[in-house]
Amino acid sequence: METNELPSILELNKEYFNNESSKYDSHPTHYLCAKKCAEAILKEVEDFEDLEGSEVLDFAYLCAHVKSILGVDLSQNMVDEYNKKVWQQGIDQEEMHAICLELKESEGNQLNGRKFDLVVCASAYHHIEDINSMTRVLANYLKQDGTLIVLDLKKQPNLSHRLHMDTNNSVSHKGGFDPKELENIFLETGMLKDVGSKIAFTFSKSNEKDKEHTFSKCNEKDKNEHTFSKCNEKDKNEHTFSKCNEKDKNEHTFSKCNEKDKKELTFEYFLVKGKKI
């Protein structure tokens, strides 16, 4: 008897980001979040003694400030987009490029023994199933006294479920994390010291799933069409009722908008930082 195995989180992530790669940056929330992550990381590394001579794993926005950057992603299409942007900016590939690779703890150093002054993982941990293992992997790519920085969403009660509704079940930790949880994971590696966390920035987002739902009904007896539109999420509570009477051809529309509830949702991003022992 043949059984169909469900796709793993890893496979779902590959599928999602391969499909989204060409339009990912066009989403205003994605662009804003990436920009704010870049600013937060640059602020954290301002005190590096040799920032211009540093080698960085993963993060594109530091290209004007460091010696070299290697981006790693499991989605080939995302890697292709990354490298295309590097080429469009006229940056030498020796200074900055990405490769498609799944970093595995069991494989040891998969980058020909290369180590880095700074390893960054931004907006990705919530997609990773085993964040304990991934933290150990990333820490292993640090030089002595190198820095690991992870940025991700702070879990917020009553808000976290509003995110990641369109990601094809590729998110392992919907809504993000408690900062203390990641601090403990950093410490449990036994490879990181001076671990701490802080709020990096906030951003607002309206939930794409809070769309208007329209239902129409035509009564053959009186030729009246009744249209009811309802968007009843707490953050966008608008109700519209329309009626078109064939007899007088007049349409009557009544709208009610609860201004108290019609607000964008505000989320927090936090940063966890540790140094290689």
Any low-confidence stretches, pLDDT <50, length ≥5?
Answer: 208-223, 225-242, 244-262
Number of domains: 2
Largest sheet: 7 strands, mixed
The number of E-state strands comes to 11
Q: Compute the average pLDDT.
A: 74
Secondary-structure element order, as H and E? HHEEHEEHEHEEEEEE
Helix content: 10-25%
Give me the number of helical elements.
Answer: 5
Q: Return Rg in Å.
A: 24 Å
Let me know the CATH homologous superfamily of the largest domain: Vaccinia Virus protein VP39
CATH class annotation of the largest domain: Alpha Beta
Please list the strands of the largest sheet in the order they lie side by side: 3-2-1-4-5-11-6
Q: End-to-end distance, in Å?
A: 52 Å
CATH topology of the largest domain: Rossmann fold
Domain Methyltransferase type: 62-148
Organism: Cetraspora pellucida
Protein name: 20407_t:CDS:1
Architecture blueprint of SSEs:
Elements: H1 9-20, H2 28-44, E1 55-57, E2 68-73, H3 76-88, E3 96-100, E4 116-122, H4 131-140, E5 142-153, H5 179-188, E6 192-205, E7 213-219, E8 224-233, E9 236-245, E10 251-257, E11 265-276
Parallel strand pairs: 1-2, 1-4, 2-3, 4-5
Antiparallel strand pairs: 5-11, 6-11, 7-8, 8-9, 9-10
Domain Methyltransferase type: 62-148
InterPro entries: Methyltransf_12 (IPR013217), SAM-dependent_MTases_sf (IPR029063)
Protein name: 20407_t:CDS:1
